Amino acid sequence: MSRIGKVPIKIKPEYASNTEMDFRSLGAVGSEVIIKGKFGVLQQKVPKVINVTKDADTIIVSLNESSKKEKRDNKALHGLYRTLINNMIVGVTEQFLVSLELVGVGYKANVQGKVLILNLGFSHPVEINIPEELTIQIEQNTTINIRGCDKQKVGVFAAELRSWRPPEPYKGKGIRFKGEVIRRLAGKSGKK
User: Fold this and answer.
1) Long-range pairs for 57-64 at CB < 8 Å and ≥24 separation?
2) Nearest to 85 by CA among 54, 114, 113
3) pLDDT by residue (tens digit) across 172-186?
4) What phi and psi values does residue 81 have, to the nearest 5 degrees?
5) Which residues contact 127 (CB under 8 A, 6 or more apart)?
6) Which residues pair with 58 in a beta bridge?
C-alpha cells in the first residue's frame, strides 16, 4: 500500500459546507470524480483499480479489493490519485498561487482585458492571452501573481511566461519564480 495513498484527505471545517463531491461511472474504464467549490469545478478520471469514498469531511482513496496485489503500478496509481484529488480540493477551496518577478531595467508587465503585455527588452512588447481559468494580478509592474483552481494549468502558464526570458547567470536579468535562487557566474576578468 502506498504511504501517500493511505493518508485520508481532510476537508477543512470552514470549507466543508461549500465543497461538493460527485462520482460518475465510466463503465469498464473506471469513474470520474467531480469536485465543486467556491472557486470552480474540477473533474478527474480515476482508473478502475482505485476506489474513492467520502465520509462527512474526509475522503479516502484506496485500492479495490480485486487489485490489492502489491504491484508497483497499483501502488504508484494509489498515491498519484490521492494527491490529484487533494490538489483538486485545495484548488476549489483556496486556489493555487504562483508569483513571478521581472528583474531587469525596463522590464514591466500590465494586463489589458484578457491579454498580458510584457516589456522584456525586445524591440516589441510580448502579448500573451490569459486562459479563462486563471486570474493575473500585477504588483508594482514587476511582480506577476497567477491564481487558479487547477495546479497544473497554473504551473504550465507560469513556465510559459518564464520561457520568454529565463534568468541569465551573469546579471540575473529575466523572469524568475519568487524566491528562486539564480546561480551567478563571474564575467570576464579583463587584462591584468
Assistant:
1) 57/10, 57/11, 57/13, 57/16, 58/8, 58/9, 58/10, 58/11, 59/8, 59/9, 59/11, 59/21, 59/85, 59/89, 60/8, 60/9, 61/5, 61/9, 61/85, 62/5, 62/6, 63/1, 63/5
2) 54
3) 899 999 988 888 888
4) -70, -30
5) 115, 116, 117, 118
6) 10
The grid cell for 107 is 522590464
**What domains lie within the chain, and their CATH numbers?**
9-93 (3.90.930.12), 96-177 (3.90.930.12)
Residue pair 2/72 in contact by the 8 Å Cβ criterion: no
Alpha-carbon radius of gyration of the chain: 22
d(CA 83, CA 5): 8
User: CA 113, 116, 152: angle at the middle one, nearest 5?
Assistant: 110
Question: Shortest CA distance to 70 belongs to which of 3, 133, 11, 12?
Answer: 3
Grid cell for residue 23: 462520482
- In angstroms, rounded to a whole number, what is the distance separating the alpha carbons of residues 49 and 177? 37
pLDDT at residue 191 greater than cutoff 80:
no
d(CA 150, CA 116): 19
pLDDT for 62: 84
Model confidence pLDDT, tens digit, residues 130-140? 999 999 999 99
